[in-house]
Design a protein that fits this description.
9 helices, 242 residues
């Protein structure tokens, strides 16, 4: 399958890179977290398999979140949640989509839930894969990532981002970590997705954002998918969302 044409949608002063795959009767907005680059991801067969399967019965609108990949870089400043979530609607408008399923992974699931809570008329359903309402541990949120693990993950980004060191792949994607050339490809994805400074800023943002308060407002039909034995986004997060 050839890499689809990359287009741009405008959200305020930010330009968002997106692609349209398929022409089915249903729209799916796909966002695979912040370590993303639309065109580099197409190099992996498992990505092609996922997107192609969705495109057999739908029109897939896939985009890079603001600040990463082919979308506008925005520096290291935190993105206000209200601006961030409106990027979903901007991509839908650009592609002529009135209503869609939001399929989001990891940190992008917070954006999807915020958008579903504030624009229920545009969201037919939610699919949250390894998602979380809050990533960091707190006094009232014991399932979050402990401080020492947060510091370790930030150190790994600062020291090894884009270098091909095996730590990040083994942690984030253990099922594919041993495939030939995977560490080198992952490093290239990281370099194309963001600079180390931007990667640190996005990681800190995902640790600080807490959308637990909006969950009662989400009445959209929702499927929660949690990979088994995930050491990064642990199963408690999926159970909490359910």
């Amino acid at each position: 399958m050839l890499t689809p044409r990359t287009q741009y949608a405008r959200s305020g002063d930010v330009y968002l890179a997106y692609q349209v795959i398929g022409d089915g009767p249903y729209d799916i907005v796909l966002v695979l977290d912040w370590a993303s680059h639309l065109e580099v991801l197409w190099e992996q067969p498992w990505v092609v398999e996922l997107v192609s399967a969705l495109a057999t019965y739908s029109r897939v609108l896939w985009f890079d979140m603001r600040g990463v990949g082919l979308s506008d870089r925005i520096g290291d400043a935190a993105v206000p949640p209200e601006e961030w979530m409106e990027d979903v609607g901007a991509v839908m408008d650009a592609a002529g989509s009135r209503r869609a399923t939001l399929f989001a992974n990891g940190h992008a699931s917070q954006m999807a839930m915020l958008y579903a809570a504030t624009h229920p008329e545009r969201v037919a359903s939610l699919v949250l894969m390894n998602g979380f309402a809050r990533f960091a541990r707190a006094d009232d949120f014991a399932i979050g990532m402990p401080r020492e693990v947060r510091e370790k993950s930030l150190d790994m980004i600062e020291v090894g981002w884009g270098s091909g060191t095996p730590g990040m792949v083994r942690w984030l994607a253990p099922s594919i970590a041993q495939r030939p050339g995977m560490h080198e490809w992952w490093a290239r994805l990281e370099r194309n997705a963001a600079t180390p400074g931007t990667a640190l800023a996005r990681m800190r943002a995902s640790l600080e954002l807490d959308v637990r308060g909006i969950l009662p407002l989400v009445d959209t039909p929702t499927l929660v998918i949690q990979t088994r034995d995930n050491a990064y986004v642990r199963a408690g997060h999926g159970r909490y969302l359910v």
